[in-house]
Amino acid sequence: MPRDGAIIFSDLIGKLDLLRVRCDKCGRDGRYRLPRLILDRGADTKLPDWLNDVAAGCPKRHSVNWNDRCRAQCPDLPRVL
How far apart are CA 55 and CA 3, in angstroms? Predict the structure, then answer.
C-alpha cells in the first residue's frame, strides 16, 4: 500500500505504547494499544485511514455544520513525532 506521506503504525513503535483518540466535539475519548493495532490491522496501516474507521460510527461525523463535525484526533502525536 502506498504511504503517500501518511504516518503509519510502524512509525510509532518505540515512541508510544498507547494511541489515544479524542474529540472535543463528540466527547470521544479512547485508548488503543499499539501492539494490538499492529496485530489486528498491520504495521503499514495509515493513521488517517484508521482514524476514519474509528470515528465512522460517530453521529457528528457527517454533520451539516462543519464547525460541529467530529474531529477525532490523536493528541499525543505532536509530542512524539
Answer: 21
**Residue 16 and residue 25: Cα distance in Å, rounded?**
25
Cell of residue 18, nine digits:
498507547
Give 46's strand partners.
8
pLDDT in tens, the chain (81 residues): 567 889 999 999 999 999 999 998 888 899 999 999 999 999 999 999 999 999 888 888 877 888 888 889 999 999 888
Per the listing, cell 504495521 goes with 43
Q: Which DSSP string corresponds to 40-51?
A: HH-TT-BHHHHH
Q: What is the Cα–Cα distance from 23 to 71, expressed in whole angstroms?
A: 5
